[in-house]
Write a structure and sequence with these properties.
- With about 425 residues, the protein is of the alpha/beta class.
- A seven-stranded mixed beta sheet has the order 1-10-9-8-11-3-2. A four-stranded parallel beta sheet has the order 6-5-4-7, with helices on both faces. The chain has a four-stranded antiparallel beta sheet with strand order 13-14-12-15.
- Strand 5, helix 7 and strand 6 form a beta-alpha-beta unit.
- The radius of gyration is 24 Å and the shape is globular.
- The two termini are about 35 Å apart.
């Protein structure tokens, strides 16, 4: 099976069309950025994951940038970019475009550095991210439904008003700020052989790759494999790499809104071709299962985009060499979305069933059914009882049940035993 068939796109080295790449972000630049971030960004913990380690047959550790200030890694790049503006530039204010995490990073960094921030966010952005961005003092504008539309609107605003546009990923200062994570990872786990990170526009992994591979070149250390994980419904890097240049794509709706970017940056694309070893795509099902795993087994609240690296291990364990470090890039998730995604993850793991069951419309029939489910160890979460639908015979009733089971095997056993007892089931 070819790599492309398996969902892995290798990133072959090639000359950068834009003339930027590794040379634009050196290890000394990253060290200087870390000094600048002292007292601003906190070093985040690296925690082992036993369940993922067992799955891939070697150590897996999670880098918890979901515990960073503002709930994601974005404060690193935003602060470095704004801090390096002149006083005159900061006096004119800054403007950004973001689905939420970069928005919060820019808003907080601007408030700490004493300048006005205006942030363009997509219509439908998570309410907690909007509230947090406003809470840090930024003005929020909604120009359209996608991050790409927000990027265009923010650039137009900068051109008209003289504010400095703080790009979410395609600027050397932003990439250098994100690269400080790479220094931390190699200090915390110098034996790491693979680093996996979520990818939207590419600023996070480009920066980490520059730091990690720059350190290896400086010290003569071993090679570390860099793997990016993109949501399958918003994966701009594979077609761009195939075309040999950054390419705009149409993105589908994805729960991983934080990495739903339709075009790689010129800088980040160039750095990927020099430094990143592979890009994989992950399904919505894998993302939801990864989020569930992070919550249940690692005790980490992670947003869908932030869990894309874990999803990559669930789908593409063959693409990594342990020890593996997976970056949990953010934890800013709407509680309502969290409940939906967790239910989705439970269903994907076979622990959540939605079943329509027909039974005789007579006294005690529903009680009998529920008692039989209880005997099988099923937790009934919700029941809706219907008698009047045209599809039902006069003597029939139908119940829609939301059931919690112990896993896929238990679910199959429950369905089989109910059918043996004569119930007509429809799985939703």
């Amino acid at each position: 099976m070819s790599e492309a068939t398996r969902g892995v796109w290798g990133v072959p080295p090639r000359a950068s069309e834009s003339g930027v790449g590794l040379a634009s972000v050196g290890v000394d630049d990253v060290r200087a950025a870390r000094e600048l971030l002292g007292g601003v960004a906190v070093p985040t913990p690296l925690i082992p994951s036993r369940v993922l380690s067992e799955q891939i047959g070697g150590p897996v550790l999670l880098k918890c940038e979901n515990l960073q200030r503002t709930g994601s890694f974005k404060i690193r790049g935003a602060y470095v970019r704004i801090a390096r503006l002149s006083e005159r530039e900061r006096a004119g204010g800054v403007v950004a475009a973001s689905a939420g995490n970069h928005a919060q990073g820019v808003a907080l960094a601007a408030s700490m550095l004493g300048c006005k921030a205006t942030v363009f966010m997509p219509v439908g952005a998570p309410l907690p991210k909007i509230a947090a961005t406003r809470g840090y003092g930024a003005e929020v504008v909604f120009p359209g439904p996608t991050v790409d539309e927000c990027l265009v609107a923010a650039q137009e605003y900068a051109d008209e008003c003289g504010a400095v546009f703080i790009h979410p990923f395609d600027h050397p200062d932003v990439v250098t700020g994100q690269a400080t994570i790479g220094l931390e990872v190699m200090e915390q786990c110098p034996q790491a052989r693979t680093i996996v990170a979520p990818v939207g526009g590419g600023g996070l992994l480009a920066g980490v790759a520059a730091a990690v591979k720059g350190l290896a070149k400086e010290t003569g250390g071993g090679d570390v494999k860099l793997v990016g994980a993109q949501a399958k419904r918003a994966a701009a890097f594979p077609p761009s790499l195939a075309a040999g240049r950054p390419t705009q794509i149409g993105i589908e709706r994805t729960m991983a809104d934080g990495i739903a970017v339709g075009r790689p940056g010129d800088l980040t694309y160039a750095m990927f071709t020099e430094l990143v070893d592979a890009v994989v795509t992950v399904t919505e099902e894998s993302i939801s299962q990864a989020l569930l795993l992070c919550l249940e087994r690692a005790k980490q609240v992670v947003e869908p985009a932030g869990a894309a690296g874990v999803a990559a291990l669930l789908e593409h364990a063959y693409a990594v060499e342990p020890p593996v470090v997976v970056l949990l890039s953010g934890g800013n998730i709407d509680p309502l979305l969290l409940s939906k995604v967790l239910r989705h993850g439970l269903a994907g793991a076979g622990r959540y069933l939605v079943v329509r069951c027909r039974l005789k419309d007579r006294p005690g029939a529903l009680v009998t059914l529920l008692s039989e489910l209880a005997e099988m160890g099923v937790n009934v979460l919700d029941v809706m009882h219907e008698r009047m639908a045209a599809r039902l015979h006069v003597e029939e009733a139908e119940v829609l049940m939301h059931l919690e089971t112990r896993g896929a095997d238990h679910s199959e056993d429950v369905i089989g035993r109910l059918r043996e007892k004569g119930y007509t089931l429809t799985l939703s």
